[in-house]
Amino acid sequence: MPFKLTINDKQHDVDVDPETPLLWVLRDTIGLTGTKYGCGIAQCGACTVHVNGDAQRSCQIAVKDVGEAKITTIEGLSPDSSHPIQKAWLAIDVPQCGYCQSGMIMAAAALLKEKTKPTSKDIDERITNLCRCGTYTRVRAAILEAAKQA
Amino acid sequence: MTTATDHTNLSRRAFLLAAGAAAGSLTLGFGTKPAAANGAANYAPFTTSTPEITSWIVIQPDDTTIIRVARSEMGQGALTALPMLVAEELECDWNKVKAEFAPPSENYSRKVAWRAKAQKGAPASHELVTHWGAMSTGGSRGTRDSQLYLRESGAMARTMLIEAAAKDWNVPTAECTAAASVITHTPSGRKTTYGKVAVAAAGITPPTRVTLKDPKTWRICGKSVRQINAPLKVNGSLAYGIDVRLPDMLYATIAQCPVFGGNIKSIDDAKIKTMPGVRQVARLTDSTVVVIADSFWQAKKALEALPITWDEGPNAKVTSASIAEFQIAGFAATNAGVTNQAGDALGAIDNAARKIEAEYHTPFLDHANMEPMNCTAKVADGKVEVWVSSQNGEAAHAAAAEAAGVKLEQVYVHKMHLGGGLGRRGSYNDPIHYAVLAAKRTNGRPVKLVYTREEDMSHGFYRPASRVIMRSGFDDKGTPTGVHIRIAGQSINAWHFPDRIKDNLDPAQANGFHKEDFGYAFPNLRVEVAMRNTHVPVGVWRSVNSSQNSFYKESFVDEMAHAAGKDPFEFRRGLLANAPKHKRVLEIAAERAGWGKPLPAGVFRGIAVENAYGSYQAVVAEVSVTDRGALKVLRIVNAIDCGHAVNTNIIEQQMQGSVVMAMSALLYGENRVDRGRVVDTNFDTYQLLRIDEVPVIENHIVPSFDFWGGIGEAGVPPIAPAICNAIFAATGKRIRSLPLKHHNLAKA
Ligand code: FES
Ligand code: FES
Q: Among A41, A101, A106, A129, which residue has the most ligand 1 atoms within 8 Å of its CB, making it the best to mutate?
């Protein structure tokens, strides 16, 4: 079934099963592999993208439900890694293997948009993504740092 | 003590590598171009650029310095730390360094260096002849095993570059120095750059003597340096194995018999053959079926709809409880192997004025790397290519050749970044095997095989379940007179490397309890291991047996301290008189944590010390436990002596990560077995730590500069016992089994 999707401010025409999760349309159909698969059941957040600016787990969104929503993936967060979260991430050298980091960064960027000065408690509540490498200490530091710069 | 080393003889590897490079002409037979994803290639294949100055270093005219890395990158920082060792001696500008993987296939095809033993997974007839040395990335060996030949290669290349410049200027080499990729003729002040003399340097005969720097004068190493490819990890552009995209690529997903050792009885593929996108339903082995389709989602949907009847085989009734019973019987087994024995422990305990005894156990644990297992394979025109995130490029090479039934020469392995390794992506090449088998059936079209998380976690190589009984006797003053330890657990080597088992003893099962790593001096000691192997596949899981054994040992030593009425820090310290490195980190951790000083109300401390993967670590944990039993781990103070600290940034990352991984296992980790299969197959019941549970982590990196230790795994073992010892201090409850979620810490 054909769908028109707006991803990173570009329109994409795709023809897929309406039940296909957005995650797999992004990765396999469109080729935006920065968004990762980790669990498929809303647990890990590796697949986090922005849907109209909100952090959402793309493994849980059927493509038929996307409609006119504006989707932003890690590739579209900034053209040159200049988003305050990306800058703080580099300054603090957050990533280890890096696999969870797209999702982590998208979750953090959404939090920062909603609360320009998030507290540590906000981070506890809103950053629910899993990182097997255990980068959490630096994730927290980088979000607080980005908030300071913003 | 390591000081500047004047090598009369270079290590054999460094010498042969340099010689090989001078003679080497490089050929890369083939290599499929990656598909453009939104216009950009999503990984950079190895290019064998020139000119090579030793096999490790390529310097381009603009001074760009490419340093090759033989090991894999899984977040542990090999791609940064190993080039730092080369760059330190090379005296190049670190900002001009790029790292690239040395390809396994070329490691084989250059055939100039040495003979490594055939890798696991290689047919016996294939003895691998490798060029850049071991590519296997595990056991926290990357730095400590290769540091010497990497530093030597850097020093050799520097010598060759200086010689090339001196020749050009017609001056003695002794009058020239190099720093930050610039060569200076000191008397005249003339300067040139590495890039300008690289071609000439490549033709110079490598030196047979080099002098290595005193590590205390390091300028690049020993510092906090950012991971080299971090920028690619913050914009989604770094390609992991799972991200490979190739022209005409098909997708596959897999089902293996859920009961280990069982087989497929029948499948009814007619039911799914007409589903959208489905290309093939293929039984790859007696126990394995894949659906190959136009997209992963189509393959997954079809496989879920495929009626499969399993022949579950003899293990279909096994449960966690039956495994526990079987392992408990190991406590009385008469064929246990013995390691680390001194005096007469059994007699000393029998005659002791006081004795204590405790039984501990831990469950199976999956690696649960964030990137699920996957591999992409292409079999066409007598050639096999695989794209894989592997901890062992050579084993991947051998496994692909074996699965395809071709010679090693016909295989090319593209090493991809790993979304975590933790041991799962080392010797266990199942996704490579299955991807190649699938790709043999698709007429040359590449196939990307991706395991669902559930399949990945149902077919792991788990940290083995194990148990232990520990007994100790004391004299009337509370001094320990004897300690007896009986481990009963599953052997990893029995599964993968049975020839490492001698006299019924798999030494790995006693890691942490050996003479070399135990540390504590007891006059009478006996450590025994009863192998109790189950049908559940087991494997190396970050810090391997040390991860459970440290929980056992350091918790029991704490029990001993309390039984003796002594402070747990002082008690350990007294027993570590002959283990100065253990003692040193113990004292540093205690001092930095303020051991013995008052704590805020409701906060309690625990301590532990360990020697694992060649490094020494001590931990002080601070916790609080509410009356209703809610635990909060507040602070972890680590002191780590890894001998030489190459990159303190990466060490800190590894220590932070170790705390998190150890706490996931401590609080939540278990893969229960029921009806012969693993029950916990995704993160809903196999929980991992999240950000709100992470304590403050303080790391004190205190290298003693007289050995080289590992770091990737060293940090995990003592975390759990330090926390459990703090829980005891807080509640009086001794935690003797994991995970903690099964314990009620509430006040009675
Ligand atoms: S893949 Fe979507 S939450 Fe894990
Ligand atoms: S950085 Fe590896 S999983 Fe988060």
A: A41
CATH number of the domain at B475, please.
3.30.365.10
End-to-end CA distance of chain B: 55
Tens digits of per-residue pLDDT, A87-112?
999 999 999 999 999 999 999 999 99
Return the DSSP state at B69: E
Q: Does B505 touch chain A (CB under 8 A)?
A: no
Instruction: Measure the CA–CA gap between B43 and B482, rounded to whole angstroms.
Output: 58
Compare CB distances from A105 to B234, B453, B694 and report the shortest one's residue.
B234
Task: Identify any residues that bridge with B84 across adjacent strands, giving them in sequence order.
Answer: none
Query: Does B361 share its domain with B384?
Result: no
Radius of gyration of chain B (CA): 27
Decide: helix, strand or coil at residue A2.
strand
Tens-place pLDDT, residues B595-644: 999 999 999 999 999 999 899 999 999 999 999 999 999 999 999 999 99
Contact A126, A147 (CB under 8 A): no
Which chain B residues are closer than 8 Å to A129 by Cβ? Answer: 690-691
**Domain boundaries A2-76, corresponding CATH code:** 3.10.20.30
ipTM entry: 0.98
> Across the interface, do A93 and B683 touch by the CB < 8 Å criterion?
no
Tell me whether residues A35 and B236 touch, CB distance under 8 A: yes
Q: Environment class of residue B479 by beta-carbon count within 10 Å: exposed (0-12), middle (13-18) or buried (19+)?
A: middle
Which of B237, B242, B682 minimises the CB distance to A43? B682
Which chain B positions have a beta carbon within 8 Å of A63's beta carbon? none
